[in-house]
Write the structure tokens for this entry.
Amino acid sequence: MFELLKTDGLSKARRGRLRTAHGSIETPVFMPVGTQASVKALDPRELIDMGTEIILGNTYHLALRPGMEIIKEAGGLHRFMNWDLPILTDSGGFQVFSLAKIRKVGQDGVEFRSHLDGSPLFLGPREAMQIQRELGSDIAMVFDQCPSHDAPFGEMKEAVDRTLRWAGQCLEQPRAKGQLIFGIGQGGSNAELRSYCAKALCNMDFDGYAIGGVSVGESEPEMMKAVEYTEPFLPVEKARYAMGLGTPAQLVELVARGVDMFDCVLPTRVARNGTAFTRKGTTSIKAAYNKRDWKPIEEDCQCYACQNFSRAYLRHLLNVNEILGLRMLSVHNSHMYLQLMRDIRSHIEQGTFSDFRESFTNGYTPTLKVLEQRAAYAAAQDLIQKNEIQN
């Protein structure tokens, strides 16, 4: 369970520890995304070497491929993918949003048409919890409805009410031994709905609470408002998880708003496009100005890529489509996110988080925020429709 170790005096930043069946997690924490039982381009050894404490899997995708019979035969998701540390599994609720064209929402759950072959799949609270029980994840997420951020109030309210009803049903389902369950708050950027949903979820006494329905096409100010409208109503003694976020600068700001846990596909996704995250912002390694640049991606970075390869070499690999290039950018970006979390934890412990926050955000050029983040979101939707789901 969650233990609050220290709070920041000038913000809502928190230092904590979440105990699970497969080990303790130091928070604030970033969780690499392994939708289909693998973090793209990275192997478990690399993830452990860079300090990964917990990864994600996805109920919807794993239920389709390889299917639950295979995973049960393997002895659960941990054994199937040879990962001994904690795993959080998303319930498939996000696919209610992302696969809107091939699903139908009902009172008891959602009817999907597989993005692979069109075969029918039904997911509801009972089905989502059963799959997560069989996966054996350390943290299971409730099945929820993630509406569009610009949905009319009536539609948003209906999604919130359905989310709350499903959350209660999820709590009633049996779980794997030691499995924690987190509730998910919805409500878009509407203060009334966010507070209503958060209060109702807290009355159900989940092991932790997530803020859902963010980073789904809304502006950054709207995203921050959604978090700010939810956080005051979440219990201090439980972990808080902002789902699907964000850029490095956003993570710092969200920690300052009281969030403990994060996941995001950006580190590996933009790496495959030749983009690297640094403490000063994003940079395109494929750009011509790196052709004779013998420096690493980031001078003081201790990741394997920066300790062994130059920008010039990595640019060459990317331009000739060598797999090592995108792998090394994935290593660097993931390491950068995890190191950022370690630095944040250290500054909260030392009482210097506010100084770190100011220094980091002032020095970070958010090129990704306006252009590349929107492009990544649009590209993800295109890929979903083309049956090329990516982490």
User: Anything to note?
Assistant: The first strand starts at residue 2 and ends at 7. Residues 58 and 206 are 20 Å apart (CA to CA). The chain has two domains: 2-265+370-385, 271-366.
